[in-house]
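[job 0412] stage=fold_complex status=start
inputs:
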Amino acid sequence: MASLRQLEYFAEVAEVGSLRQAAQRLGVTQPTLTVQLRALEEALGVVLFERTRNATLLTPAGRDLLPEALTLMAQWRNIVESAHLISDHSHSTYRLGVPPTLGPYLLPSLLPSLHQRFQQLRLHVREEVPDMLLKGLEEGRFDLVIGPISSVPEALVREPLFREPLFLASPVDMDFPAVGDVAERDLRGLDILAMDERHTMRREVERICERAGARLNSDYEGTSLDTLRQMVVMGMGLAFLPALYVRSEIHRPEELRVQRLQGGRLFREHAFLYRRHAPSRHFYQQLKAHIREIITRDLGDTVTPLD
Amino acid sequence: MASLRQLEYFAEVAEVGSLRQAAQRLGVTQPTLTVQLRALEEALGVVLFERTRNATLLTPAGRDLLPEALTLMAQWRNIVESAHLISDHSHSTYRLGVPPTLGPYLLPSLLPSLHQRFQQLRLHVREEVPDMLLKGLEEGRFDLVIGPISSVPEALVREPLFREPLFLASPVDMDFPAVGDVAERDLRGLDILAMDERHTMRREVERICERAGARLNSDYEGTSLDTLRQMVVMGMGLAFLPALYVRSEIHRPEELRVQRLQGGRLFREHAFLYRRHAPSRHFYQQLKAHIREIITRDLGDTVTPLD
DNA sequence: ATTACCATATAGTAAAAATCTATCACATAA
DNA sequence: TTATGTGATAGATTTTTACTATATGGTAAT
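[job 0412] stage=fold_complex status=done
writing structure:
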């Protein structure tokens, strides 16, 4: 296989029309060019130069090939330049995984500020359930994960991000005892709807239901928070909705009643995850610090930042 | 300065995700790759791979640079190809891409005559779904593509080849109204099976189903025309099968009923594609002319040649 | 004709780079 | 635990590249 250097020699000799002069400009000796050009011609199976007594001229074949060689070298220089840009880590594309119960309600608050801070940063966001996020991160399908994941294998790093309360949603036409915050005993015997068991939220809800003696309705499992909300509106039961969802999607109090649970013990905790030995790990930490600042500044009234 | 060989190593390791396996496929030893990749990373000033215990994964930076490296290598292959073609264009090996729904049923009619005309011509045929064919052609993994592709980027040339009708296949033991050609209204409410959405045929079928009020069954998607046929035989629904497939594979009328759709408006159109600036483009045109002659002569009763 | 001077080609050697063998260290699966 | 997978490393070896010195051939002035 030929080399980029041979192409460089090719281009230079073609331009100046002389091995000696080209050699001088390239900082090598003339025999080097003789040998390397021959090797290139051998590799291509084509004679590139016509060596005359006072000059070394391109053959028609060489003339056809020269522009392509020049383009290729330009492209090579382009790659080198890209690489130098990318080397500061904020010029790359990272694959970010988030659960569908968080992404659409968190990222709109995050991405604009992030883009402002890291102009050249690109995030490919993909939604998957938490288990898949964890697996995908380990297997390298994701570079970063933000989600309600509480413990991770040694190969990953988990940095706590924030705590998000879950609110009780009930239909407005339902006759519900509590007016302000709801006590656990108010839930006794009531039907509760929840996301399917692939979502971590469900475990929190299960625990509450068990303590409060509420009935977790397994027949109707929401596949999205929107579906869940609709089911509550239609009177199929109550549900716990995460604060960021409520903040971004619940605008009509006449349709749905949203209340806080007494004691503030119902929440989920989101973390920022990446592979411990990822070459960009230092940049990830910068990123995490910045995300935390944005959350504190813009979402501090809804969630609680963690350390 | 880095070398083309290092880029080749880069690409191969990126693809297989393992130094050892890549080394085997490249015909070198694993330490060679360790050293050369490190040298390439050094030259670019960027870490391309994340070496874990189980695998060697691309970093985000590597992922960003890989396409450029592939493009450069494709261009290098292009230069080599140009050089060889400067003497004799019909003396080469071309990589022909076809969809799996066409290749096995068209090429057996084409290749013998083609070989007779161009004794030294070699075609490496490879089957992929249409989208991949188009991508592969752009990226230089294919030289030629024959398939049902209707529009192409500026960098490619699309030459229409022929129009192939789609026939309705139904199980013989099904009570089906029409005896000769089938009218669209005969399809109302029936179950239709189709290839998955990566195949262009599906779009034609979707259109017909919508017009005729048939039900496109999405639960069982055929992954090959043979599977599709088997599913029809087993009574899971009707399907539209392309004429060349019917011609070459349907030999038992007692197993499957094949009918034409009234109006002759259901068909797919195959084209002959190549890169606009491919050095062999003139030869490709010769090739296309010859293929068209063969089709007209040998398959004129089944398909309609186009210009 | 001879000589000086321009070009590229070649031979042989030295330096550098690429590759291989062998082995290590570590993780995972059986 | 062992067997087998992963990449990293050291040192020997082969291959490639480049250099020096010289050869070859042709032109132009003497």
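[job 0412] summary: DSSP finds ten helices and twelve strands in chain A.
[job 0412] exit 0
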